[in-house]
Amino acid sequence: MSDRASPSSRLLVRVGLCLWLSAGLACVWEVLALQPPDSPLHLGVLAGPIAQLASISFGLGTVHIIVGYWWSSLYTAGEGKLVAWLLAIGAIVQVLALLYAASRGLMAVQLLDPRLDARMALYARGFGHGLTLAGGIIVLLRAVRR
């Protein structure tokens, strides 16, 4: 990325790199969670939600970096700030909801879960997904029109 990159593109690339870092840390966490229970390295949490956190963080990070690098061909300087923030905040909310869910051993996918924290994690995840989806659709429509 050049020094003349817009603040929005820098935001997206930075968020993408943070998401990649999150994915890497989640991979280490998953390996520790997969250790046998009698191992001193075992963490005592379910590995499935951690793997979900790692894969979604990596995927969102990749998309953010790609969109960040293409940003200057989609938007002129000063345009698209709201869209960039939609993408960034949506991804951050999703990953934070998945981080909370993984720390509690929840998948955050059950709509009628009797546990309030499981439903709140699902709703937060859905809210973040909606923001990311809205931003992604706007970027995609902009790319198709160009």
**Pattern of helices and strands:** HHHH
Q: In terms of structural class, how would the helical and strand content be classed? A: mainly alpha
- In angstroms, what is the radius of gyration? 17 Å
Beta content comes to under 5%
Oligomer: single chain
| Unreliable stretches | none
- Principal-axes shape call: elongated
Ends: how far apart?
A: 21 Å
Determine the number of helices (DSSP H or I, runs of at least 4 residues).
4
Number of strands: 0
Chain-wise SSE layout:
Elements (H helix, E strand, L loop, with lengths): L6 H27 L13 H28 L6 H24 L11 H30 L1
Helix pairs in contact: 1-2, 1-3, 2-3, 3-4
Short characterization:
It contains four helices and no strands.
Brief descriptors of the model:
146 residues; mainly alpha; 4 helices; 75% helix
Written overview of the protein:
It contains four helices and no strands. The protein is mainly α.
